Amino acid sequence: xxxxxxxxxxxxxxxxxxxxxxxxxxxxxxxxxxxxxxxxxxxxxxxxxxxxxxxxxxxxxxxxxxxxxxxxxxxxxxxxxxxxxxxxxxxxxxxxx
Length: 97
Known about the structure:
- It contains four helices and three strands, in the order βββαααα.
- With 97 residues, the protein is of the alpha+beta class.
- Strands 1-2-3 form a three-stranded antiparallel beta sheet, with no helix packed on it.
- A hairpin with an 8-residue loop joins β2 and β3.
- The longest helix is centred in the middle third of the chain and has 12 residues.
- The chain is elongated.
């Protein structure tokens, strides 16, 4: 039997509980740290657009002047995902420009 240490992707806390399975059968986890911004997570996402590092890259590419279709092509995600992420970060983008 192998024990794998699971850490929260946001706060790196090891205070984690299992939280059922998603519709594809992957294990969901619940972060029990009260200061964490993320409550549930999966260790391996199928869709790249759900990864925090990809979302951060979308904002970074927008600040550097990349277009929506160019960003989607480079990151291998949907242009709709790029648009939705930029809409969520609209306030951040206005402060930086």
